[in-house]
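**Entry details**
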Amino acid sequence: MSLKQITACIAIGISLASTACFPQATGNTQQQIQQHSQKLQEYLREKKPELAIPELQALAALDPNDVNTRANLGVLLFFKGDYANAAPQLRAAIKLQPDLWRMQALLGICEKREGDLANARTDLESSFPQLTEEKMRVQTGLEMVELYSSTGDLAKASAIIAVLREHDPTNLTILYAAYRIYSDLAGDAMLSISLTDPHSAQMHQVMAHELERQGDKVGAIAQYREALKINPALPGLHFELAEVLNATGQVANKDEAEREYRAALVVNSSDEKTECRLGDIASLRGDIEESFKHYEHAYQLQPLDPDAAIGLAKAYASLDQPQKGVPLLEQVIQQDPTNSMAHFRLSTLYRQAGRTEDAKQQIVEYKKYKEMKERLGDLYKQMRLQPGKDQNVDADEPK
C-alpha cells in the first residue's frame, strides 16, 4: 500500500490528523495529541502506514469525535485488509459527517467482505451516485454488480454495468463483468422460456440462435423452420432465418433467403435491416435502381443504421453521384471509426471525386480495421463460435 493510495481516499480532502483538529484539547492532552500527530506525519512521509495506525488509534482515543482521525484510521485499516476494524471507524466518521461518500463506499465494501450483505447493499447504493473519483466509482460499481449477481438480481447488475461502461468503455474489468452478467441474463431468459413453454416458437428460436452461434447452420435452419410452423408472424423470425440461409453461401438457400426477407417485410414493413439485405441482393444482381430503392427506404426508416447509410452511399456511387454518398459515410465513421466497410466505400467515393490522398488514407484505415476483424474471426474459431455476420455485402471489396 502506497501513501498515494491512502491519501487518495481521505475523507474530506485535508491533511491527516494534526493538533489543529483538536481545538478543545488542553494541557497534557494537547501535548499527547501533538506527539502522536508528529509521529503520524513522520510515518506517512516514510510510507510506513502500519506504524501510522497506532498513532491514529491513540488520537481517536483522545478525541473520538474528530471526523478526520476516524476517517483516516478507517482508510488505513481498510487498505491493510482489516475490514472488521475499519468498518466501525468509517461508520463513526459518517455519523459525524454524513456526506462522506467515499467513506460510505469503503464502508459498504468492508461490510460486503464481512458478510453483512444487507448493510453493504444500502451503503454501496447510497454512495455510488455521489462518487466523482473514477477509480472509486468503478470499484464501488463492480462491488455492487458482484453483490447483485450473487443474489440473482441480474437486472440491477446490468443497469450498473451500463453506467460503468458509459463512463469507461474500454475498461477490461468492466467489459468482462459485462460479459458475465449478459451471459447470465441470456441463460436466465433461456431457462425461463423453457419452463414457460418448451414447445413454443420462441424456444425453437432460442435453440436456433445457440446452434448458429456454435456454427451449426443446418441445425439452426431446422429450428427456425420449426418456429415458423408454430408462429409465422413472430417478429424478426423470417429475417433471422433469411440471415442464416444467406450465410450458407448455397445458391438454393440464397433464393429461399430472399423469399424470407420479403416475408419479413410483410410482418414488419418498417424493418430497415430487411430493406438493407434486399438492397444487397439487388446490388449483387446489378439492379442499381432496385438496390437504391431499398437502401433509400432503409435510410429513411433509420438514418443512424450504418448498413443503410453504407448501402445508400454505394448506390449513389453506382449512379455517379459520389458527392451525395460522402457525407453518409463520413457520418458512419464518426459514429464508429472501426467500421472497415465504411472506410472502403469512402475511399471509392473520394477517388470518384478526385480526392486521391484522402482515398489512400481511407484504404489504410480500411486495411487496419479489416485485419482487426480477421483476428477476431480467428479468436471465434478457437472458441468454436460463429462470428457476427457481415452487415454489408460488397462484391468489389478486396479479398
